[in-house]
Every structure is written in C-alpha cells, then in structure tokens.
Amino acid sequence: KIVNPEDKMTSLIFGDGATATLLSTDPVLELGAFSFGTQGSEVDKLACNEGVLSMNGRAVFNFVATNVPGDIQHVVKKNHLSIEDIDCFVLHQGSRFIVETIANRLLVDIKKVPFMAAEYGNTVSSSIPMMLASLIKDVKNRTMVLCGFGLGFSWASTVIKRKE
C-alpha cells in the first residue's frame, strides 16, 4: 500500500514473504549472545511520509556497509569465536551488492555468504528464516552468524550453533 509503483528505489526491492519458526524443547540449533543497534539520526533516509515509502538508497547502503561488518565482528567476539570459526554468514538479502560488500569487508570467502534472494526477492524480515530452512539441512553449517538490518536504520546479529 505504501510503495509507489513509479519509484524505482522502492518498488522493485520489496517482496512478500512470511515464515514461521518452530520452537522446541529439543532444538537442532542453539542461540548465542546477541548484538543490537540503531542509528536514529538517519530516520529520514528510509521512511514512510504521508503514506508513501521513500528511500535514499546511497544512504542505506553506506549505513549498512559502515555498521554491519563491525557488528558482526563484535558478536563473533562476544561469542568467544573468530571470523574463521564461522561456517556460514546468513545475512538479510537486501541486494547481492550489499551482501558481497559485507563479505568483502569481513574478508571472508563469498562461498560462506550465500545470496539466495534471486529465488524469492527481498522479503524483508523473512529473508533470514527462509535461508535457514535450507542452510540448516547442510550439516557442514555448524556455526552460523545471523544478521538482519535495514528499516529504522537498525541491525541485530547473533551466532547459532548446531547442537552436538
């Protein structure tokens, strides 16, 4: 409703998607320590004004490229790990370019940072659980970083580990 179909900055990037997460007393994965942040001073760069979504794409990219790699490094350290200990980085799928930029800034092999949005688009908050549905099937993915970012110029990261 709030996306202007004539605005190329917003009309082509937001897809629809929904996920459900099963919580169990016998989980496959365990959550580690989290890290959260927000940069409220940039609120006008991605906002709904007068019922229409507007976005300054360059500002959003700069925000993510500046803040997210450092937060990932912080949460990895907070979980007593190193970047080399991570098997897979599961990032919000805003665009291939931003996913590759984060991988490059972390100095990790792009193979550890999958881009899967080509299959379903940018589904906003559902992108990470959609990826996890297939990534957790690969037992080689024992230790993964999850990182969501975007709306509200905010971000959150954690580490998940496969239970032994």
Question: Describe it for me?
Answer:
By secondary structure, this protein is an alpha+beta fold. It contains three helices and six strands. Helix 1 crosses helix 2 (96-106). Strand 2 and strand 3 (52-55) form a beta hairpin. 26% of the residues lie in helices and 24% in strands. It has a four-stranded mixed β-sheet, with helices on both faces. It has a two-stranded antiparallel ribbon with strand order 2-3. It has helices at residues 57-78, 96-106, 127-135; strands at 29-38, 46-49, 52-55, 88-91, 143-150, 154-162.
Short description:
The chain is α+β, with helices and mostly antiparallel strands.
Distance between the termini: 46 Å
The Rg value, from CA coordinates, equals: 16 Å
Main sheet specs? 4 strands, mixed
* Residues in helices, as a percent range: 25-40%
Instruction: List SSEs in N-to-C order.
Output: EEEHEHHEE
**How would you state the average pLDDT, rounded?**
89
Residue share in β-strands: 15-25%
The total strand number stands at: 6
With helices defined by DSSP (H or I, 4 residues minimum), what is the helix count? 3
Low-pLDDT residue intervals, each spanning 5 or more residues = none
Strand order of the largest sheet: 1-6-5-4
Morphology: globular
Helix/strand/pairing category? alpha+beta
